[in-house]
Amino acid sequence: MTVSVMIVDDHPIWRDGVARDLAEHGFDVRATAADGEAALRIARTVRPDVVLMDLNLGETSGVVAARSITGELPGTRVLVLSASGDHSDVLEAVKAGASGYLVKSASVAELVDAVHRTAGGDPVFTAGLAGMVLGEYRRMADAPADGDPPPRLTERETDVLRLVAKGLTAKQIADRLVISHRTVENHVQSTLRKLQLHNRVELARYAIEHGLDRDED
């Protein structure tokens, strides 16, 4: 199945170059946009699988646009493609609903792989950034907040969630549990619905906050 993509960047040469590279690798580049406001408006119409989003977009930032797109279009995932590798920018993007974060120094091969994986539901980060995000979630988990008891998950959903928290991909989870990739996806989607979350990054955060990233005794 062809992955549809939309590219949002305020630099036309960069934007057009990324669009050309992805089209040459078989992606359906449905649209481009130069700012966050246009990104949301166009995304509502073209409904891409993945939005490649820069952060510095003028009045409507990439963070604001990512939050709006992921909030309104649950079938669309946002992969940030930014020149900044600053930890605060990464965390803000993730909190806004981005499924991953890639720096612009990534190669075309890395970009192609990241878009495919994002479309498939995997969180994708430039090397070193994933550990930082999970580490921040673990730090936040040290101060648990009061609230309603979590929804009841099945034993298998809990097994899958525990491995998501450890940073494993869907394929790695399938291999570890000796089940099919599709079964893993079904458990992930069921868990997302039960917990009212949007993507695997939020799922990993939930699991860490509930101690599921730690090995059982």
From TrEMBL:
InterPro entries: CheY-like_superfamily, NreC/VraR/RcsB-like_REC, Sig_transdc_resp-reg_C-effctor, Sig_transdc_resp-reg_receiver, Tscrpt_reg_LuxR_C, WalR-like. GO terms for biological process: phosphorelay signal transduction system; regulation of DNA-templated transcription. SUPFAM superfamilies: C-terminal effector domain of the bipartite response regulators, CheY-like. Residues 4-119 form the Response regulatory domain. The modification 4-aspartylphosphate is found at D54. Residues 146-211 form the HTH luxR-type domain. It holds the Pfam family Response_reg. The keyword Transcription applies. Keywords: DNA-binding, Phosphoprotein, Transcription, Transcription regulation. The keyword DNA-binding applies. One of its GO terms (molecular function) is DNA binding. PANTHER family: NITRATE_NITRITE RESPONSE REGULATOR PROTEIN NARP, TWO-COMPONENT RESPONSE REGULATOR. This is Response regulator transcription factor. It comes from Prauserella cavernicola.
